[in-house]
User: Fold this.
Amino acid sequence: MPKTVLHVVGARPNLVKVAPIMRDMARTPERFRQVLVHTGQHYDDRMSRIFFDELGIPNPDVHLGVGSGSHAYQTATIMQRLEQTLLDYRPDVVVVYGDANSTLAGALTAAKLDLPVAHVEAGLRSFDRTMPEETNRVVTDHISELLFTPSRDADANLAHEGIDSGKVHFVGNVMIDTLEQKRIQIENRPILDELGLMSPEGNERKAREFIVATLHRPANVDDVDALRLIVDALTEVGRRLPVVFPVHPRTRKSIGALRSLKASPIMFTEPTGYLDFLCLLRHATLVVTDSGGVQEETTYLYVPCLTVRPNTERPVTITQGTNRLVDTRDGNFADAIREALDSSREPARNQSGHPELWDGKTAARISGVLSAL
Ligand code: UD1
Ligand code: UDP
Assistant:
């Protein structure tokens, strides 16, 4: 009898994580019957549909249509709507991804019905409870039966919190599976041409130097003054080299209030699909972000990354990767960007390896553990 595995997703980064796992499990239908539930947390085509299309994720079996709202509204509504689905399917395991409200709500609903929860990307900690994701991470981990960790620091965090090591499986980073599977398509995107980022050089055309920026953390974008500080610095740097800034819908809500925007050379775009975004990252001289996943992808691609946050739950991207934290309140942020650009041009950029088990085989490790349940 195949095991029924029910995946709960809802936010953009969940989709990048679920894709390789569903794909791997689909190879052995004798082991797994899969059910996909979309909470509807993200619903714009460019935050959801495009990832299904590009990453080959099957259409959801159930769509809860929850949409946006406060944390309590979103979490509680997902729980209410998911409960009946879980009762209908009675899965052998409920798999949740990352640290969004959809993750917490999926885990809580399953745990209350006494269904085993598996958490992909367990154990990450920023130790900053002002971040809504930190609560989601801690609670989800403590009610999960299986914890799939992307890095050794995550194992150490879980041990420190007293979680039984028998539940913890160090499997590596599943986002890297997606990146590896899409590597060829990522290379061949017209986006660089479309944004004027290619320059002719002899017979060979090469990408020009440019910066990619993406921001969506409430601490950076909900407060217009905080956002202005970042956008003004990018504007200053953008007078000398192109800055591409795909705007997350949360950021869209406050960015319109910035008067300085009109004169800014920044290329603001809609959120891009996965393939275009990874093509931009891959060729960028520098990435300025507060995204969790982007810190990991730039580390894997050896592209310098400035993370606009006082902390990160992904310390391997600093100790073994290309990531640096920058606090916009300390000194001049435009200077920090310029310094990062200067060091990105140094020839001895470390390309000596990737964090342990960031090898494109994480999904298979997860399937292996789940099939032995
Ligand atoms: C959520 C996650 C965050 C994750 C991010 C990835 C939580 C608490 N936060 O943040 O961990 O890093 O997704 O992108 O779960 N909106 C739209 N269209 C959409 C989705 C959202 O316009 O398709 C707008 C709405 O105005 C909404 C706002 O964006 O209120 C924020 O969306 P929400 O899902 O609450 O949080 P994110 O900031 O996207
Ligand atoms: N991403 C994308 N288009 C964009 C911005 C990000 O495809 O315009 C991808 C990014 O490469 C990564 C994922 O979305 O794979 C990360 O999602 P996000 O930054 O929204 O969430 P976080 O990782 O911070 O939770």
